[in-house]
Write a structure and sequence with these properties.
Elements (H helix, E strand, L loop, with lengths): L1 E9 L8 E9 L2 E7 H7 L4 E4 L3 E4 L1 E3 L2 H7 L8 H4 L6 H5 L5 H17 L2 E5 L6 H9 L3 E3 L36 E4 L4 H7 L4 E6 L2 E5 L2
Parallel strand pairs: 1-4, 1-5, 6-7, 7-8
Antiparallel strand pairs: 1-2, 2-3, 5-9, 9-10, 10-11
Length: 214
């Protein structure tokens, strides 16, 4: 089905200027057009329209995906009273002990948390565990190459420390390219960088709505 995703501001990336009242037309898993909503809608009058608040961007890239999933435990909501809701690392993680069952559940929840942060692509080195790579792909993430020795502390928010949204996206919008998008409930790029990817209200991976916050 042909779908138009639209928001008050579109950041297409690739050095292109922001588009007020912007839109992206998606057919199956492919981007078929983007620009001002009026122009895109006129060219595709039969398309379904999804309106999102704030800012629409290309999907974000999570460079620390493997480390986050391997070095953190994402608590089950039913464990919130005892473990809280933030990912557990270090000694708190070690205290849980080696248990493949909870680790599998943690990976699923970790991947969902990534989708909730506008992530549509995950970096993985060739030595990443095959099961982990498979789980990332099944969640809808595009798996891309990664530096052999990523530095720093893994962060769930791909926008953390970014100077521009384009630097945190997997790739700019491209007609004929994979339809990866994220919508954020903020007024502009500056507010998005200040607030971070936790303001995400929708994530579209390969044309499929994989997260909707409202």
């Amino acid at each position: 089905m042909l779908t138009i995703h639209t928001a008050a501001l579109l950041l297409p990336g690739g050095g292109r200027a922001p588009v007020a009242d912007g839109a992206v037309a998606v057919q199956d898993a492919v981007t078929v057009a983007f620009g001002r909503y009026g122009d895109v809608a006129a060219a595709h009058p039969a398309a379904r329209v999804r309106r999102w608040p704030g800012v629409l961007t290309p999907g974000l890239l999570q460079p620390d995906a493997v480390r986050l999933l391997e070095e953190s435990y994402f608590p089950d909501p039913r464990e919130a009273d005892t473990l809280g809701t933030a990912p557990l690392t270090g000694e708190e993680l070690d205290a849980l002990g080696p248990d493949d069952t909870w680790r599998a559940g943690s990976v699923r929840r970790g991947l969902h948390r990534m989708l909730r942060h506008g992530t549509t692509a995950a970096a993985a080195v060739p030595t990443a565990p095959p099961a982990l790579v498979t789980a990332m792909r099944r969640s809808g993430l595009l798996v891309v190459g990664a530096p052999s020795h990523p530095g720093g502390t893994p962060r769930l928010d791909p926008l953390a420390g970014a100077e521009a949204v384009a630097g945190a996206t997997a790739s700019p919008l491209d007609v004929g390219g994979r339809a990866d998008l994220a919508a954020f409930d903020v007024p502009d790029e500056g507010a998005l960088l200040a607030t971070g990817a936790a303001s995400c209200v929708a994530t579209i991976a390969a044309g499929r709505l994989v997260y909707r916050g409202r």
